[in-house]
Q: What sequence folds into this?
């Protein structure tokens, strides 16, 4: 019989409980023994959290009932992100979870749109995206499984209360045998001979040993950095925001099926609609605005009455040099931080967990050994994921015409990674979108942000000329009508939620009203 | 200001020049772009090729009827390669163009074979693969329906001269103009671009874009490029190919055979009424006369004089420079082990069409082309090298030399991860898929040190009865196919199409 792998998870926020839930669900009890250590003294920042459609794969893989999850976390549906004032003040575009039309004769749909535009067509690219049109109308319905239906051309994600999410996952994980220890870690013991983590010591004197330690302790990286000194790549030169002020407020008006990110003088403001209230925050650069000023600006720019005092967060954009080092894997903020502009925080947690779950071998169980070759491959993968998100985020800041504040002047003129420069130039010349096999953000995402940020192609793919102009025009017309008709048939987002997943009004410990 | 490309000249010889000309002419048909061909002297000579399934896609785009093609070129089908002796005397394995088994709860079936091998019970993948089983039985049918009968694909074995003539006629039918005289000199413009080609009869052939398909001689691009190359000979020391036409094989399998030899590898492949054979070798370990003797010993009844072609493993750093794009051996020289030479040329052609510049002065397309094609070339290099590094090596100085240098980092990552966990990760722009790597690595006798934990759990749900049922069904489907030779004979010329 194999000896179960002893997994110790340090920290009980979103990252910690997602990790616990996943390991408990994917590996049978004979394979693992999971303990999560968290301190009830250390609070969780209870702001709204927006996700990406990938979370649904995670839910499905570990067996979470989506409807129940939504009801218990005050969740709403999300079809995309609205970006306001990014390229110019007054602009608005949506980055949708779905495609713009579909390829014609193997050529991307938007190339035909570019061709028609060059010939005088005035339609917006948004008219060809069902999730965008539905978002603008505040409507929502579940997508269809029939790939030929226009209702299959989008995906969705959730906006939920992150502290309720962690609480929900805690219940899920504990039911599956995860043991929770309430305690504060005061010391990390490394084995002198090889620097592997031997144990962690709690304030009450107890010592917890393990084979694999997952560091979910947040920015400080209790094991990965404080004990192991793994090092951090700082990306502040491209992503200068280093603070956030967060505050919930009352909701007013219709419930939007999307998150909003509004560019501000020294950063940007998020707006995440939940069933019972609105999550808000101002992500800013301390070089360009003070904490007090940021907080007061935030408070004057809320939909409704603030429900708490603003809380502050500090961070440094970047990535841990190795997120898996020896027998410690850093997941969540301990592994890296990218501002939540594209709602990637939970995605990056998820990808770290599923990659780890996929890569661990059966030898790790019996011998408690981790093959360096597997560790290296894991680190390369996670690096690739972070780097690709990084380039995508930089695009939002760099491709702007704004010159109304020092932050935007900096971002507009900063030098960007060569990989991003090349992508931008290729889009500008001919609307060509570089895609890749793995990692986040597919063609429609890049397209949405290029066009939304006013990166306007000079030309279009000549292959579109193989199809007669009148045929192209009528095909575009057909897609527009189809999208509009389908969106108009959807119920209002609020109505849909009320009948599908109304929040259960159970007060959870430690959660503010 | 912006000036569109109006004239393309494709220069070169062999199948690549005609595929490129026909493909470009087809792609440009509504775009007022003229495509013509300037022929060059053939560089070296190869009896023929084995191809990947992508050749079928290209035939489809050019309107080639497959039966017509098979009938008129005397080609045959290819379900697999069989590699003998690559892990020493008596070793051998198949790499088929098909699935191995069917997924177990989302886990690829080959992982089951890995876990069996780890438990000391190695099994040949072809027992679980229709393509592999049919290859062993010398049978062939096209995939159809769904499930096991659709679990494979196929390539071709094609004779060089027959294919070149066939494609030449096709290109001309598609409206490609051929200059009556061959290439003489390349003339440059003041800005360093190619301005025109001076033909041997004195004609000046001008164009906006030139496609160099002249093989390793790279007769166009070498005039506009710094000619920097990545040299792959440390991993792939072979630098000569000798090949010839041979007598027909009795009841030929739809299989390309390769056999490890003293200083390289021998190969044999069936054609409709003949066969072809060759030797790929390193001149550092065997001279041309000895190579000729080795080939003759392998295939005593050669019907044509074996011709030697030199090559140098590696690729141009940039295969699109200024207004010249290199396809085929002018861009990448790689031994034909994986049968991907024509495939890479097709990819280059498709990428050129996708990135066809909107104006002559733009250079971003060339940079993207070089990035994408560089990655594709490197991935094929890695897959080819992997044949030399899978499992244990045959004895001999040549074989020791093939493993002397550490593998390229991308390949080392792949082999290391597999050796540790049986996991196969692919990068962007890889031609060969996870299943191809599985055929190669399992076939070569690589056994990982461990299996992924979640895979182990899922495989636990596989019953031994499921395994034997699958084996039996695979055999049954393969045995129901007609013999390959008979299938080839049935490819009668189709009725004239309208």
A:
């Amino acid at each position: 019989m194999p000896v179960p792998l002893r997994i110790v998870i340090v920290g009980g926020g979103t990252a910690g409980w997602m990790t616990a839930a996943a390991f408990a669900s994917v590996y049978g009890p004979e394979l693992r023994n999971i303990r999560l250590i968290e301190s009830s003294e250390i609070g969780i920042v209870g702001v709204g959290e927006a996700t990406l459609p990938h979370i649904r794969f995670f839910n499905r893989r570990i067996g979470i009932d989506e409807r129940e999850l939504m009801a218990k976390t005050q969740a709403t549906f999300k079809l995309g992100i609205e970006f306001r004032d990014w390229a110019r003040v007054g602009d608005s575009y949506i980055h949708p979870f779905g495609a713009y039309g579909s390829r014609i004769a193997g050529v991307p749909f938007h190339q035909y749109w570019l061709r028609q535009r060059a010939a005088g067509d005035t339609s917006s690219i948004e008219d060809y995206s069902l999730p965008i049109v539905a978002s603008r109308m505040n409507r929502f319905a579940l997508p269809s499984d029939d790939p030929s239906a226009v209702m299959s051309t989008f995906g969705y994600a959730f906006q939920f209360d992150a502290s309720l999410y962690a609480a929900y996952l805690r219940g899920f994980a504990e039911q599956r045998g995860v043991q929770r220890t309430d305690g504060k870690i005061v010391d990390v013991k490394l084995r002198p001979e090889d620097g592997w983590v031997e144990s962690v010591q709690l304030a009450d004197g107890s010592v917890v040993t393990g084979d694999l330690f997952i560091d979910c302790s947040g920015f400080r990286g209790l094991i990965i950095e404080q004990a192991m000194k793994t090092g951090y790549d700082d990306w502040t030169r491209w992503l200068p925001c280093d603070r956030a002020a967060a505050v919930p407020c009352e909701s007013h008006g219709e419930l939007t099926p999307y998150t909003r990110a509004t560019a501000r003088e020294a950063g940007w403001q998020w707006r995440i609609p939940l069933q019972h209230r609105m999550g808000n925050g101002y992500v800013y650069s301390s070089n360009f605005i003070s904490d007090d000023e940021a907080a007061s600006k935030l408070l004057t720019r809320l939909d409704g009455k603030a429900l708490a005092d603003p809380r502050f967060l500090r961070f440094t954009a970047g990535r841990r040099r190795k997120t898996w080092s020896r027998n410690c894997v850093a997941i969540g903020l301990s592994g890296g931080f990218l501002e939540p502009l594209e709602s990637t925080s939970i995605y990056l947690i998820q990808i770290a967990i599923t990659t780890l779950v996929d890569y661990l071998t059966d030898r790790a169980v019996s011998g408690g050994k981790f093959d360096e070759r597997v560790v290296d491959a894991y680190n390369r993968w996670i690096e690739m994921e972070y780097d690709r998100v990084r380039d995508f985020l930089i695009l939002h800041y760099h491709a702007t015409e704004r010159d109304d504040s020092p932050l935007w002047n900096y971002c507009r003129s900063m030098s960007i990674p060569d990989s991003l420069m090349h992508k931008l130039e290729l889009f500008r010349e001919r609307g060509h979108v570089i895609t890749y096999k793995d990692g986040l953000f597919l063609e429609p995402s890049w397209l949405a942000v290029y066009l939304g940020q006013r990166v306007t192609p000079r030309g279009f793919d000549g292959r579109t000329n193989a199809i007669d102009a009148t045929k192209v025009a009528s095909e575009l017309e057909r897609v527009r009508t189809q999208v509009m008709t389908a969106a108009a048939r959807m119920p209002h987002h609020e109505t849909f939620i009320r009948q599908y997943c109304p929040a259960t009004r159970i007060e959870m410990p430690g959660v503010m009203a | 200001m912006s000036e569109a490309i109006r004239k393309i000249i494709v220069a070169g010889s062999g199948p690549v020049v005609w595929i490129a000309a026909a493909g470009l002419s087809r792609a440009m048909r509504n775009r007022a772009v003229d495509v013509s061909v300037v022929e060059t002297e053939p560089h070296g000579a190869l009896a023929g090729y084995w191809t990947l399934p992508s050749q079928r896609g290209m035939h489809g785009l050019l309107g080639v009827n497959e039966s017509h093609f098979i009938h008129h070129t005397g080609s045959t089908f290819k379900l697999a390669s069989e590699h003998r002796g690559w892990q020493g005397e008596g070793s051998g394995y198949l790499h088929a163009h098909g699935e191995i088994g069917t997924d177990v709860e989302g886990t690829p079936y080959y992982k089951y074979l890995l876990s069996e091998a780890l438990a000391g019970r190695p099994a040949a993948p072809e027992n679980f693969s229709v393509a592999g089983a049919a290859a062993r039985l010398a049978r062939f049918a096209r995939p159809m329906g769904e499930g096991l009968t659709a679990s494979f694909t196929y390539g071709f074995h094609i004779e060089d001269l027959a294919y070149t003539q066939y494609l030449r006629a096709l290109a001309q039918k598609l409206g490609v103009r051929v200059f009556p005289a061959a290439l003489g000199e390349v003339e440059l413009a003041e800005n360093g671009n190619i301005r025109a080609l001076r033909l041997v009869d004195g004609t000046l052939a001008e164009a906006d874009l030139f496609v160099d398909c002249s093989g390793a001689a790279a007769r166009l691009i070498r005039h506009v490029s710094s000619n920097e190359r990545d040299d792959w000979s440390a991993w792939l020391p072979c630098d000569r190919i000798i090949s010839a036409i041979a007598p027909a094989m009795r009841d030929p399998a739809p299989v390309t055979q390769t056999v490890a030899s003293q200083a390289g590898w021998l190969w044999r492949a069936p054609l409709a009424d003949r066969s072809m054979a060759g030797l790929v070798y390193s001149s550092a370990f065997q001279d041309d006369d000895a190579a000729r003797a080795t080939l003759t010993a392998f295939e005593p009844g050669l019907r044509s004089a074996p011709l030697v072609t030199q090559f140098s493993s590696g690729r141009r750093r940039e295969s699109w420079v200024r207004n010249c794009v290199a396809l085929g051996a002018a861009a990448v020289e790689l031994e034909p082990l994986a049968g991907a030479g024509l495939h890479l040329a097709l990819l280059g052609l498709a990428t050129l069409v996708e990135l066809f510049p909107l104006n002559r002065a733009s250079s971003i397309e060339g940079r993207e082309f070089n990035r994408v094609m560089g990655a594709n070339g490197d991935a094929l290099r890695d897959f080819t090298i992997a044949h030399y590094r899978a499992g244990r090596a045959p004895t001999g100085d040549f074989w020791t030399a093939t493993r002397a240098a550490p593998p390229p980092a991308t390949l080392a990552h792949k082999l290391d991860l597999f050796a540790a966990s049986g996991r196969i990760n692919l990068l962007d722009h890889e031609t060969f898929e996870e299943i191809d790597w599985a055929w190669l690595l399992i076939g070569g006798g690589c056994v990982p040190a461990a299996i992924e934990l979640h895979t182990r759990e899922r495989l636990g749900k596989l019953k031994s009865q499921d395994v034997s049922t699958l084996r039996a069904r695979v055999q049954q489907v393969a045995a129901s196919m007609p013999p390959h030779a008979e299938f080839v004979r049935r490819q009668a010329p189709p009725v004239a199409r309208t």
About this structure: DSSP finds 16 helices and 22 strands in chain A. The two ends of chain A are 49 Å apart (CA to CA).
